[in-house]
Structures are given as C-alpha cells and as structure tokens.
C-alpha cells in the first residue's frame, strides 16, 4: 500500500464516519473525531465513563495524521505508514463498523411504473489455507434469494451499481423465498466446493514435512517404553505447527435489492 | 486426503438479529473500506516476505532478508541463527517474528534473553518492528500479554515456571542460546518442556569443536535431527574432541542453522587504523611506579601480589586511581603497623606526582583530532580526573558508566552526539549502545581481557560507520602496560581482527579467563625475561590453536591490504 493510497483511504474513512476535516492537504490531515469514533480509536474508556457519569460536555479529540513529507505547521501529528499500529487499528475498526449492510439499487424513475427489486444475499469471505505457512484469498458470492442463482465476484458487480440506503420511490421489493439462514448455508456449500476443487498440494507437502519431523522424533525416543514428557510436548507441537486446515471467515455481507 | 474446512459462524446470529431489528446497517463507503483493508492485509501467497512492506522505515540488509526467508521457507520456522556478531541477529529474529504475526501464524510469543538485555529487546521490538512486546515484571503478564520478554532465570523459577510451561507458544526466541549447550542443566530441561510451534535460537558462537554441545543445541530445536545420542556417537564421534564424517554432520547442521560471515555479506567494513602512543613517565611518576614495583618483593605482600599488580596498573592510569586503592589498603591493614608504614610511604610518593603524562598526551591528541573522541579507562578515579582535566583545558566531555540506567545511557549518548567532543567511559557501555557517529577511540589504559577491548571497539566499528576508525593505544614505556600491549597487539593482532573471531577462538579453547592467565604470569614471574617468555608462549598458544581462524585473519588482513592499494 503506497502512501498516497493510505492518504486516500484515511480521508474516505473519516468522511464515511462523518468526522469533520479541520485541515488537510496532500500530506496530512487534521480530523475532529465524533464521539463514536473517539471511543473506537482513542482508547480512553475512563474518560467516557466519567463523562457519562457526570454529564460533563463531551469533548472528543482531534487527530492529526501525516502521510507525506510535509508536516502540519504546528509540527504535530502521527506519521502513518503501512505497518503503523494506528492504521491497523483503523483497518480493524472499519471491519467492526461495517459488518452488516442493506442497500437498494437506485433506479431512475421510468414513467408511472412501479419497479420490482430482487433480494440478494452477499457474503464477502476470507479463505485461509494454513499449516506452518499461510495463504489467504478473498471471495465474494451473491445469492438470488428467489431463484437461487449464485454469482461469484459479486462485490465487483455491486461496485458498478448506484446504491442507496433507502428504497427509491416507485420501487418495491420482492419477498425472498429463500430464508437468510439457508441462503448462508447455500453459499457455504459453494465455497466448500470451490475449496475442494482447488490445488491442495500445499497440504500434502505440509503433511510430508510433519511426517519427516515426527519420524525424527520417534527415532530419537526409540526404545524408550515410557516416553518422557518432552516427547509428548514436542509431538503435540508438531501437530499444531504442520496440521493443515482451511478456515473461512466472513468479512462482511448483507442484503441487496437489485433490479 | 481431505483438509478440514472450518467456517466461523459467529457472524450469522448477529446478521439475523439485524434483519429482525431492521438495522443498524453500515454505510456503503465504510463497507467497501472494510473489504479493501482486508485485501491489503491478507497474504496472497504462501511464500515471500510481507514484513518489509510493513516496516518501510527500516532498511534491511540483503543477508537479513535472506535469513528470514530461509528460516520460514526452508527450515519451517525452527532454526539456529548464528550470524557473526554485528550482522544483526536481533533484526533477523524481529523480521521472522513480524512475518509470522502478520500472517496470523503467531500470536503468543516468548522471548528469553539475558537479564541485561530484556529492556533492550522490548524497546527494539516495539520501536523497530511495532511488535507490542512487554517485559515480564508481574506474574500476570505471562498469561495476559501476547509477546513477553523475560530472562530465562526468571521464567524457569517458581512460581513462574508452571505458568510458563502451561502456555501454548507459537514462537519461542532464545538469545545467547549457546548457554543451553549442556543438556543436564535446569535451563535446558526447561526449554525442552516449553510448548512451542516455532523456535529461534540465537548465538554468535555455535561451538563446533565440542561435539556434545552442537548435538545438544540442535536436539533442543529438533529432537532426532542428529539422531539420538547413541547413533550420533556412532556416526560422528571419534573421541571426546574430534569428529568423523564431518562433512555429513555439517550438512545436517546447516539444515537447521544459518550463519553469515562478514566477508560473505559483502558489506563494506570501515578500516581500523591502530596507533600505539608510547608515553614516558615523568620522574615523579616513575619513582612511584618503581617504588610500588618493589612491594612485590616485600615478604608482607607475597600473598597479595595481585593487589600490587592492580596498583601498578593504576599508577599507569592516574595517581588518583592509585591513591584510592592505597587508602583502602591502609584501612584494611590496621593491625600491621609495618605494612601500614609501607603503604603510607607510597601515598607520600603519590602526593609528589606533579603531572599526569598520559592525560597531557590525551589532551594533545584530542586537540589535534578535532572531532569526536571516546576515551576508555578502567578506573572511575581516572574518569573523574580526566573530566576535570579536560574541562580545565576548555574541552567538554560527558561521563559514561556501565552502571548507568538505560535512559541515562541514552541521554549521555545524546549529549555526546550533540554537545560534547569527548566521551569518557569506564566500560563499553553494554550491548546496544551505538556510537558509530564517532571515529576515534583512545584506549587510555588497556583491560586485560581481550573481549572487553573488542566490545569497546565494537561500539564504534560497526555497520553504519561511515569513516575509518582510529584506535589509539596508550602505553607507558617500561611498565606492565607495555607487556600487555605487546601481547594483545603485536602478538595476536587483536586490534585489527574483526569482532567475533576472537570470541570464537577464546570460547573454543576455554580461555575466557585469559585475564587470569595474564595476571598469573605478571605476578609470579621473577624477571622481565620470564614475563616476556611466558607472554610469548601465551600468544603463540592463542595463535597456533586458533589454526583455522588465524587463516581467516590472514585472509582478512590480505583483503585489507588490497583495499589499501
């Protein structure tokens, strides 16, 4: 992630969270946090507890973030780069604040007709292959909650549409036939299928490495009928080190009503 | 064989609840940002390093990146990091740690280091790697903090021991791992019982000569890698000290050990330019030296020859240093009027000393150098005197002692860098104090332990040093100092060899207490000739038995010569 990408990301993040930009240029930004975002980012629960108890006027902090060479005139500000803990805190807060969504396609009015919108369930997931190494990929699926059609890379499609929070005038939503619970289940099945068809030599290789180390361990304690504790500790450790597994985690998802 | 797939399902319930409650729903922009953030932090490939992208403020050297990659991709995260001193083993360990943490393969981390390095590790991991390491101070830290730095002695002691052995560690890092070479020790057994997925053992001196030790170290990391004791003895051991099938053993060891040597890294090391500065004692100083020398033959001091030696060394440094020792002796000798009288007369002679020839030489040198200088002395009294003396002559200096707290050391370093020309140190200042902005060292007096000289020079002669390093060794003529300098400099070429090599040789031949050898020679020899002979023997012992290493030195020297031409 380049510095200008980080800069753009931060800008969008604070605007999306309705924070006021007090000062900004290409290299830094000073942001007045909202009460909500202060609680998320500034890690001062005692202050907020105290404020709520006493009813004192709330005083959320302002945050100055620097992404380029130029610093604000007062010289203050946190330098943000890809590894900085602040950025990763912001990353994970975005995930927490935006796990669930419901949106409608913004359809231009076409005469006096009422326009039906179909319900879709979308899940964005992170699939991780892990052994002593790890690889992640992000998948996005959309399920038509009436006819059961499933589309991959669904989020990319959504990004091309104009979406709004409220249902547009002259639009109405069709009732889903598939319940969200079973919709999730259907998408899980598709993901399972996708994973099973993928190349799993990585897991086979990990098992080989595991076996090699375990054979060495066995040979080391060979002939000892009563194996010492260190043997069991090491054996268990090898399992946690190598045993290949796949995990699927939902990043975010929700309901989309589309034309 | 099918790989099990785990779905994390905690998202579901909350989602259904939001449908029920008709919200709250996220805004579209933030929803997109969350997804983008995730795509930035995920690892698209099993191989390769993500960590350097997270640490743009650090410049990693090619060999350090290589080590991290090798350890993760070829050694599966279990390795002995054995680079020569000064090549950045801590950095390599930090990189590997960071990589596993970024990939979510490590959360719970234990770092065991010598007690004196705990704070430094904590700071480096936090500042250089943004790894929230915590020094263990309270016992709840073991369970509640994810990355803990502690000394092994604390960790293995009750009540900590049981708590620590109960944790499932993803990575255990052990600094100065060569201390774990003996499998019958409590430390060894403790490390063996730690539950650990990945493990890094850091050592600068993987002791190859002692068959036993390399076997124990590798076995700690990967039991069975070198077979069990019985197989190992059969396959590789000739007798207690020598090996057979050495090539095969080396290959096996290299599967779990990475070792970079300075020459191989292609790093340009600054040159060391060593100058001996002979100093003639003034008449009053000479009188004092000779008179204390004579104490050696006094029957009363037969049993305290070492004390006399110490006095002689102090006289070579400053009359202040000698005076304090004499005063202490006087107090201890209360029940022996004769000895008291002897000492008192020495103290009179101290008072007769009118100048400090060495200090004058130092002043002259500092004035001619006209840039930063570090003066190392063995004695605090000399340190104080020098500070006063330089001050009298308009030169500002800052003191530095091993006993300073870390924050004070950092502050003194800062003062020296920005405000003073001279730093006067009684000790090398410990690991991690980097003074590479300075190019001149005066060894005002010489420690008898060559390792300490290495540490002194190592503060300045390291990666990051831009210019050549000048080392000035002061030696008072016709004193014990001359013998020491002859041995260390002329005979074993100490000053020009590079850090690490000497350490290896001394470890190899168990000559860590070389200091005692030297005092022994100086104290028990009857004549100058005998001293010279014995010192020669010691030098050739080090040189001869250093066999392979000495070849390394010569190559190094040759390289140095060619770089000169």
Automatic annotation (TrEMBL), chain A:
What is the name of the protein in this document?
Uncharacterized protein
- The species is Fictibacillus aquaticus
Q: Which Pfam families match?
A: YqhG
TrEMBL record, chain B:
Domain Helicase ATP-binding residues, every copy = 70-224
SUPFAM superfamilies in the record, alphabetically?
P-loop containing nucleoside triphosphate hydrolases (SSF52540)
Helicase C-terminal domain segment(s): 361-506
Source organism superkingdom: Bacteria
Q: InterPro entries in the record, alphabetically?
A: DEXDc_RapA, Helicase_ATP-bd, Helicase_C-like, P-loop_NTPase, SNF2-like_sf, SNF2/RAD54-like_C, SNF2_N
Q: Which UniProt keywords apply?
A: ATP-binding, Helicase, Hydrolase, Nucleotide-binding
Q: Name one GO molecular function term.
A: helicase activity
Q: What is the protein name for this chain?
A: ATP-dependent helicase
The source organism is Fictibacillus aquaticus
The upper taxonomy is: Bacteria, Bacillati, Bacillota, Bacilli, Bacillales
């Amino acid at each position: 992630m380049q510095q200008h990408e980080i800069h753009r990301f931060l800008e969008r993040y604070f605007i999306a969270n309705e924070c006021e930009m007090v000062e900004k240029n290409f290299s830094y930004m000073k942001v007045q946090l909202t009460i909500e975002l202060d609680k998320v980012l500034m890690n001062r629960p005692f202050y907020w507890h105290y404020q709520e108890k006493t009813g004192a006027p709330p005083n959320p902090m302002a945050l100055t973030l620097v992404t380029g060479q130029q610093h604000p005139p007062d010289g203050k500000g946190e330098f943000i780069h890809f590894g900085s803990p602040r950025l990763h805190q912001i990353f994970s807060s975005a995930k927490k604040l935006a796990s669930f969504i419901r949106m409608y396609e913004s359809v231009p009015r076409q005469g006096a007709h009422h326009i039906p919108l179909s319900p879709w369930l979308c899940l964005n997931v992170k699939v991780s292959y892990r052994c002593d190494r790890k690889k992640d990929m992000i998948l996005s699926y959309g399920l038509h909650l009436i006819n059961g059609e499933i589309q991959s890379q669904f989020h990319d499609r959504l990004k091309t549409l104009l979406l709004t929070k409220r249902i547009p005038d002259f639009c109405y939503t069709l009732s889903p036939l598939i319940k969200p619970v079973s919709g999730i289940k259907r998408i899980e099945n598709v993901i399972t299928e996708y994973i099973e068809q993928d190349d799993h030599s990585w897991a086979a290789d990990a098992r080989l490495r595991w076996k090699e180390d375990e054979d060495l361990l066995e040979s080391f304690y060979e002939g000892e009928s009563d194996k010492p504790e260190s043997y069991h500790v090491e054996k268990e450790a090898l399992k946690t080190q190598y045993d290949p597994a796949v995990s699927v985690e939902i990043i975010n998802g929700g309901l989309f009503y589309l034309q | 064989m099918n790989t099990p797939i785990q779905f994390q399902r905690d998202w579901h319930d909350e989602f259904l609840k939001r449908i029920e409650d008709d919200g709250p729903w996220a805004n579209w922009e933030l929803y997109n940002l969350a997804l983008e953030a995730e795509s930035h932090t995920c690892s698209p490939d099993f191989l390769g390093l993500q960590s350097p992208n997270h640490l743009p403020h650090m410049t990693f050297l090619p060999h350090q990146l290589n080590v991290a990659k090798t350890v993760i991709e070829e050694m599966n995260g279990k390795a002995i990091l054995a680079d020569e001193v000064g090549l950045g083993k801590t950095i390599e360990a930090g990189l590997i740690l960071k990589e596993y943490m970024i990939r979510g393969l490590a959360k719970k981390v234990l770092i065991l280091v010598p007690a004196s390095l705990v704070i430094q590790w904590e700071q480096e991991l936090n500042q250089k790697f943004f790894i929230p390491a915590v020094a263990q101070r309270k016992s709840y830290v073991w369970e509640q903090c994810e990355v803990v730095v502690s000394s092994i002695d604390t960790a293995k002691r009750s009540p900590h021991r049981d708590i620590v052995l109960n944790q499932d560690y993803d990575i255990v890092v052990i600094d100065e791992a060569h201390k774990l070479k003996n499998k019958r020790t409590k430390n060894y057994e403790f490390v063996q019982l730690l539950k650990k997925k990945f493990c890094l053992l850091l050592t600068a001196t993987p002791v190859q000569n002692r068959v036993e030790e390399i076997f124990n170290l590798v076995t700690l990391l990967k039991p069975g890698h070198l077979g069990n004791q019985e197989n190992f003895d059969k396959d590789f051991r000739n007798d207690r000290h020598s090996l057979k099938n050495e090539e095969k053993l080396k290959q096996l060891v290299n599967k779990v050990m990475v070792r970079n040597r300075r020459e191989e890294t292609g790093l340009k090391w600054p040159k060391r330019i060593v100058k001996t500065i002979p100093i003639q004692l003034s008449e009053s100083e000479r009188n004092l030296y000779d008179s204390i020398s004579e104490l050696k033959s006094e029957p009363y001091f037969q049993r305290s020859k070492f004390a006399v030696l110490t006095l002689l060394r102090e006289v070579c440094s400053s009359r202040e240093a000698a005076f304090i020792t004499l005063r202490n002796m006087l107090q201890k000798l209360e029940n022996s009027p004769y000895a008291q009288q002897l000492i008192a007369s020495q103290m009179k002679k101290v008072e007769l000393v009118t100048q400090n020839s060495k200090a004058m030489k130092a002043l002259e040198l500092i004035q001619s150098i006209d840039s930063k200088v570090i003066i190392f002395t063995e004695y605090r009294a000399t340190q104080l005197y020098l500070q006063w003396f330089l001050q009298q002559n308009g030169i500002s200096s800052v003191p530095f002692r091993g006993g300073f707290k870390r924050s004070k050391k950092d502050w003194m370093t800062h003062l020296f860098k920005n405000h003073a020309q001279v730093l006067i140190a009684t000790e090398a200042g410990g690991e991690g104090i980097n003074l590479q902005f300075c190019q001149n060292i005066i060894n005002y007096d010489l420690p008898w332990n060559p390792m300490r000289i290495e540490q002194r020079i190592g503060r300045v002669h390291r990666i990051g040093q831009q210019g050549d390093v000048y080392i000035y060794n002061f030696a008072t003529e016709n004193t014990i100092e001359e013998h020491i300098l002859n041995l260390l400099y002329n005979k074993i070429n100490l000053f020009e060899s590079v850090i690490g090599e000497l350490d290896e040789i001394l470890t190899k031949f168990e000559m860590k207490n070389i200091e005692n050898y030297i005092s022994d020679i100086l104290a028990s020899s009857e004549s100058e000739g005998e001293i010279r002979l014995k010192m020669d023997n010691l030098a050739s012992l080090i040189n001869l038995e250093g066999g392979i290493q000495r070849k390394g030195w010569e190559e190094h020297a040759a390289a140095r010569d060619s770089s000169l031409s």
